[in-house]
Design brief:
Length: 466
């Protein structure tokens, strides 16, 4: 049983079952590089402020760097009785440099130490996720540009509504994922704050230089209140919320791909390399990737609710409940990254059935609103025109015809304002290209939206390179 930093206060050793129950090393070991980087920066600051000597700092830094190599090479032995990554590294440092290792913890607590580690971890992962979303949006835009002439039904209530360009449909997802990038970029600002130097909750009596530590670790801002610093998990909740919304978008896209790849729709064919079969039905080709993305969305929602519930009644400042934040955070980060990656690979390989989409867009009276517009353009009030078009649809349904398959005499029976040019007006391509209002599905609009998206993505890529 290992010695504890708090052994001086206790008359009894920690029970082994308590050690196992309170240990988080199985979860938080992935923070090792951030813990070491933060400790090195803390050590340099202690030397700068003469709290440690330069010789002591040099010895500690060398020891920490050796421990990092040991962990990366799989030679470092983690001890569950030492609870977490911080105490395991400290124990390893004692083995490396002796009692001088105990000086490293001067002017800090595990409370501000873990807050730092998680912020550094999430800062890196958020930046990675933003870049992956930028790359995925490039794929969406490229796919939309490639299929700019493909027409399919737009739906409301999962009923065919009006014809749209497939590119317009895809660009709707570009907009969703763009908002995700904006949300995560804004969230990044609140992640990127240095909590180290807050100590346990009240600050420290040592003459530390928090701004110097912030500079070493690349933080543009230092936290303002020591009590808030060690108890704040808003940045995790905000990230989980942003991730949940992003997963909603992946889930909605997944649902559409599942539907579109079914025999009932037949709009797309998923690549064999991103589908699975049945153990009993030889003909099956299942959209398991999209289904799993849809299913994993629920897990991310659960992670958000877990942290919200954990934090909702905690008094200031640090409480051990907060150890559980990392399980949810790491789970969501891993899921979101895996979903982005799998869709980046799958989307370019999906086969589009242009003819099937056009057939569906040409049936089901998707031009009924345009018949009403036709009459309204000739002076009839829209509500009256709507009723007139509805009667025409009812008649066509009875005859098992489409509106444009009715004779001119039949159409004129609903209004004398109708003439031969109505057939051109009702043509699917015309229905689409008349919708020139900003944000509409007209081809020229969609082409302009794609161009604007390409420009934004170029700016985002160049901005991140800077």
């Amino acid at each position: 049983m290992s010695e504890k930093p708090w052994d001086g206060r206790f008359a009894e050793a920690t029970d082994r079952s308590v050690e196992a129950f309170t240990s988080s090393i199985e979860i938080d070991h992935r923070l090792y590089s951030y813990d070491i980087e933060g400790s090195i920066a803390h050590c340099r600051m202690l030397a700068k402020t003469s709290i440690l000597s330069e010789q002591e700092a040099s010895l500690l830094i060398q020891g920490l760097e050796k421990i990092k190599i040991e962990i990366e090479q799989g030679r470092f032995e983690f001890d569950e009785s030492l609870e977490d990554i911080h105490m395991n590294i400290e124990a390893g440092l004692v083995r490396q440099v002796g009692k001088t290792a105990h000086k490293l913890h001067t002017a800090r607590s595990r409370n501000d130490q873990v807050a730092l580690d998680v912020r550094m971890y999430l800062r890196d992962r958020t930046s990675m996720i933003i870049q992956k979303l930028i790359d995925f949006r490039k794929i969406i835009v490229h796919t939309a540009k490639t299929h700019i002439d493909v027409i399919l039904p737009g739906y409301t209530h999962l009923q065919r509504a009006q014809p749209v360009l497939l590119a317009h449909h895809l660009m709707a997802y570009y907009e969703m994922f763009s908002r995700d990038v904006d949300r995560l970029s804004d969230c990044f600002k609140r992640i990127n704050v240095l909590p180290l130097g807050s100590a346990a909750l009240a600050g420290t009596t040592y003459p530390i230089d928090r701004n110097y530590t912030a500079m070493l670790l690349g933080f543009p801002k230092v936290s303002d209140n020591s009590m808030d610093s060690v108890s704040d998990r808003d940045f995790i909740i905000e990230f989980l919320s942003s991730a949940s919304i992003c997963m909603v978008h992946f889930s909605r896209m997944s649902e559409e791909f599942i539907l579109w790849s079914s025999s009932e729709f037949g709009f797309i064919e998923l690549p064999d390399s991103f589908a699975t079969g049945s153990s009993i039905m030889p003909q099956k080709k299942n959209p398991d990737v999209s289904e799993l993305v849809r299913g994993k969305t629920g897990r991310v929602f659960g992670d958000l609710m877990a942290v919200l519930t954990m934090m909702k009644s905690l008094p200031l400042t640090y409480n051990r409940d907060m150890q559980e934040d990392k399980t949810s955070l790491f789970d969501t980060v891993d899921i979101l990254i895996s979903c982005i990656d799998i869709y980046r690979k799958m989307l370019p390989k999906i086969k589009i059935d242009k003819e099937a989409m056009l057939r569906a867009a040409s049936r089901g009276y998707l031009n009924a609103t345009d018949l009403a517009d036709y009459l309204a353009n000739r002076g009839m009030a829209f509500r009256e025109a709507h009723g007139c078009a509805g009667k025409a649809v009812s008649s066509a349904i009875g005859q098992k015809k489409e509106l444009h398959e009715l004779s001119i005499a039949e159409l004129k029976s609903f209004s004398s304002l109708i003439s031969e040019d109505v057939y051109t007006f009702l043509a699917t391509e015309q229905v689409i290209n008349r919708r020139k209002s900003y944000g509409g599905t007209a081809c020229e609009n969609v082409a302009a939206a794609i161009k604007a998206a390409e420009n934004r993505l170029r700016e985002e890529t160049e901005g991140r390179a800077d």
